[in-house]
């Protein structure tokens, strides 16, 4: 799973 | 959210506060690279544009705002309030040598060719090298004040803790973001030499001085 849309990191 | 990520964020916040307090209490920004501080502000501005488009959590939004305000505050103190104490003679790193290649790379290697995504990628790449003017300044003067070295240690630890967080997230959630991981590793590697000096000198009560 490559997550880019939801960036929950700072 | 896991403990590595949380401690990483707090370490990042601690670094920014240490620097602000050092400048405020001593009424001086001697030994601090204004160029690195400008780059960090640029990192936060380009990364946190999603404050207006994408709500994630109260924690996320509040931290973003704190990072933005404190980093802009540091730049303000350095270039306006305490400008007379700014050591510009030693802060001679050419930031266009970082901003231009990083800008080019963020257009070429990104997850999605959209303005916000390119700016986010730019901020990730730029953050990884934004400390170079500060390290260059220390290598020029050959020393750093102890408080400045605490700042650098907290700032370097933050991305190292994020790497542990990414390993943890990969195994627990299957989450990974290659751009952030590669840039985060580059960023942490740049601090290794400093970490060595910090542990062998500053933690033993000595000032950070480079060998002549």
Explain how this protein is built.
The complex is a heterodimer of chains A (10) and B (212). With 10 residues, chain A is mostly loops. Helices cover 0% and strands 0% of the residues of chain A. The model of chain A has no long low-confidence stretch (mean pLDDT 65). By secondary structure, chain B is mainly alpha-helical. Chain B has one domain. A two-stranded antiparallel sheet of chain B has the order 1-2. The longest helix of chain B is centred in the last third of the chain and has 28 residues. Chain B: It is a multi-pass membrane protein. Chain B: Its main location: membrane. Chain B: It comes from Branchiostoma belcheri (Amphioxus).
Itemize the secondary structure elements and their pairings.
The complex is a heterodimer of chains A (10) and B (212).
Chain A lengths: L10
Chain B lengths: L2 H24 L7 H14 L10 H24 L14 H13 L6 H15 L2 H10 L1 E2 L1 H28 L4 H23 L7 E2 L3
Antiparallel strand pairs in B: 1-2
Helix pairs in contact in B: 1-3, 1-7, 2-3, 2-5, 4-5, 5-8, 7-8
Question: Would you kindly provide a brief summary of this structure?
Answer:
The complex is a heterodimer of chains A (10) and B (212). Chain A is low in regular secondary structure and 10 residues long.
Keywords:
heterodimer; A: 10 residues; little secondary structure; 0% strand; elongated; B: 212 residues; mainly alpha; two-stranded antiparallel ribbon; 71% helix; 2% strand; globular; transmembrane (chain B); membrane (chain B); ER-Golgi transport (chain B)
């Amino acid at each position: 799973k490559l997550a880019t849309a939801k960036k929950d990191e700072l | 959210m896991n403990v590595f990520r949380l401690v990483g964020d707090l370490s990042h916040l601690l670094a920014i506060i240490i620097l602000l307090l050092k400048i405020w209490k001593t009424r001086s920004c001697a030994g601090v690279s204004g160029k690195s501080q400008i780059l960090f502000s640029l990192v936060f501005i380009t990364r946190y544009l999603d404050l207006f488009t994408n709500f994630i959590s109260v924690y996320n939004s509040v931290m973003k705002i704190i990072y933005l305000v404190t980093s802009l505050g540091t730049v303000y103190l350095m270039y306006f309030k305490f400008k007379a104490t700014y050591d510009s003679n030693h802060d001679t790193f050419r930031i266009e040598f970082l901003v231009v290649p990083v800008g080019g790379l963020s257009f070429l290697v990104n997850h999605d060719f959209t303005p916000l995504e390119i700016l986010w990628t730019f901020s990730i790449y730029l953050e990884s090298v934004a400390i170079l003017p500060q390290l260059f300044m220390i290598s020029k003067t050959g020393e750093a004040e102890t408080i400045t070295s605490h700042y650098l240690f907290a700032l370097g630890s933050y991305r190292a803790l994020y790497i542990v967080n990414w390993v943890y997230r990969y195994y627990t959630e299957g989450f990974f973001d290659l751009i952030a991981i590669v840039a985060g590793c580059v960023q942490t590697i740049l601090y290794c030499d400093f970490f060595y000096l910090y542990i062998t000198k500053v933690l033993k009560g000595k000032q950070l001085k480079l060998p002549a």
